[in-house]
């Protein structure tokens, strides 16, 4: 059976020069690979179907490619024997082809936490798990597709995210305003989210949108959040620790430690962890002995002013006048003294 | 305290005072270097200092350690003052007087050529008193706010929470001001002033030349060496208190 098919394929290839080569090659391959019963045995006893969906292929972004662009080792018919250990090894082998054109993303993937899990023998997605194999279409169209793709494995997180202020907006007309998984975690070079280095970049991540006046104005949100965070104790620690923090774990409170990660709610939502009534509890996550008046030590992303934190504002104002007054006075006296020395000569 | 040796210099500062100056100078350098990156974390210099220390946590550890040492030094200083007061042996020459304000006016008038002669100072001139009292008051602010920032949980158990950001603003600004005063004013007066340059060594050696004493502290000089008398007067100025911690 196998041999007969091989001869038929060889004959078609011989007649190839008369047709458009791509079409012809695809047709040649589909001659066998449209057969749903066609499969391959793997060393671990599993089988692998070898069916290629003609319509999926034609609708993919790779419709113009030839089969052998991605499968150069299969140009010969009959195909050279290759015994794959298991499905994972087969997939890894097939994915080698992607780097021919997508080298940067391929390399990024090699740095990712997914690849590390794969290397350790666990299951994690490679190229085709997220992008599809023969049915490759644009991964971010529509935008919500990204979340759906990740949800295939990360269903619990995806569900939490779908209920958050960001996730709820993803289905609506403002979908472009909210982050999807890859905006924070990146797409190919996904790092371990428990890594201190990743956590410390959170303010920068959130700040990309939350300091954008155009985007924030639409929702009546302040653009001061990043600046006020960075100028406070936690923010200073975060920015100064970025290059020295190693390993996993929290170095200091970043955005997500108070606002939540995938379950971020509106700040005036009764569920919000940063609502005044809930704030002590949130502080106590890191400061277990915090008293009821401790949260007032944080100015809730407000710049000190007469209305908000007047005492802080007055002290700030005092030094803004006092320092130049003192230093200016001393400098003036120094200059006068020098002037008199010159005059005396 | 004021025994001349070969008639060329006078001992001006006791070993305890010299040690105090060395200690506060070292602590000031450490506190400035470890405090600056915390107030201005965005500067490249801050990152370099923080990285050199091994991270902001190390930086804070050093800053707090030096702060606690400064607290101990300040407490020792005041214990010494109080003991001296109790024994009625504390020279009160550092207290500001009406004359200091008059001296400041005379000095300014002299600089502006409204007076032809500079002010005549006693043991401490008004600038030295300004620096000493500035340091005392600045230290009180820095130590008080520093303790609030070091123990915010404890502090907010007794104080309103808003005092923590108040302490932060005051600590950073007061520290900045102290830094600028020392860099500009103290360094000028101890090193760069034309009649001092390059280095006034008195606080390190404890000795001041008679010549310089006559020029910078004529009233003290006249008290030590009354005109017509060759040896210094036996009773003046009052000896330092016997309490010594260094």
In the residues of chain A, how many domains can be counted? Answer: 3
The DSSP helix count of chain A reads 20
Report the top-level CATH class of chain B: Mainly Alpha
User: Main beta sheet of chain A: strand number and arrangement?
Assistant: 2 strands, antiparallel
Mean pLDDT of chain B, to the nearest integer, reads 89
Low-confidence sequence ranges of chain B: 1-6, 234-246
Per the principal axes of the C-alpha atoms, what is the gross shape of chain A?
A: elongated
Q: So, the CATH homologous superfamily of chain B?
A: Transmembrane di-heme cytochromes, Chain C
Count of helical segments of chain B?
Answer: 10
**CATH T-level topology of chain B:** Fumarate Reductase Cytochrome B subunit
Salient structural properties:
heterodimer; A: 345 residues; mainly alpha; 3 domains; 20 helices; 51% helix; B: 246 residues; two-stranded antiparallel sheet; 10 helices; disordered N terminus; disordered C terminus
How are the secondary structure elements laid out?
The complex is a heterodimer of chains A (345) and B (246).
Chain A: H1 2-14, H2 21-33, E1 39-41, E2 47-49, H3 54-59, H4 67-70, H5 87-95, H6 103-110, H7 113-119, H8 127-131, H9 144-151, H10 155-163, H11 165-169, H12 181-185, H13 196-200, H14 202-210, H15 213-217, H16 225-230, H17 233-241, H18 255-259, H19 276-284, H20 310-344
Antiparallel strand pairs in A: 1-2
Helix pairs in contact in A: 1-2, 9-10
Chain B: E1 9-11, H1 15-39, H2 44-53, H3 56-86, H4 98-111, H5 126-150, H6 152-158, H7 163-192, H8 202-205, E2 207-209, H9 210-216, H10 218-224
Antiparallel strand pairs in B: 1-2
